[in-house]
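During the no-cost extension, the postdoctoral fellow (Dr. R.K.) reprocessed legacy sequence entries with the updated structure-token encoder. One reprocessed record is reproduced below for audit purposes.
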Amino acid sequence: MGERKKLLDDREISLIIRRIATEIIEKNRGVENVVLVGIKRRGDILAMRIAEEIKNLTGKEIPVGAIDITLYRDDLQLVSEFPMVQESYIPFDINDKVVVLIDDVLFTGRTVRAAISEILDYGRPRAIQLAVLVDRMHRELPIGADFVGKKIPTARKEIVDVFLKEVDGEEGVYLTKKK
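Re-encoded structure tokens follow.
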């Protein structure tokens, strides 16, 4: 594949989770009307971790859901003739709530656009905020994150991989340069 460089380790990811949780609490003056929705496959895990950190900081449990944006993608035909779709899970009312959408990597903005479309099918939130572990820039749509773990300037051909122990058995963020 190419040269691979570790950008974040497990300790740094934990610190980012704590910082994002703190920023969500501060920006929303608490978590009274806040819900978290993670984009599958890793945003949902990050959402659960952030919710746990918010509980540690405030003593309050906040609702956590997960969405699979596969059917909302604008490039669905290009991705696969038979896409693998996982179940979305938002078992709470999002009307008039602040929905914090959580993803691992923000790149072009297209995944976030698809996620917003899906969230709006569930109701009309007061606001949608975006939290990402890594922002690698290169936006194709006018989308920015409210909460960013780390900005990492990359070349378009480079790949940012996020590994979380719940899915991958290891923890870390890597940058791979394609050959």
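The mean pLDDT is 91. DSSP finds five helices and eight strands in the chain. The remaining legacy entries will be reprocessed before the final report is submitted.
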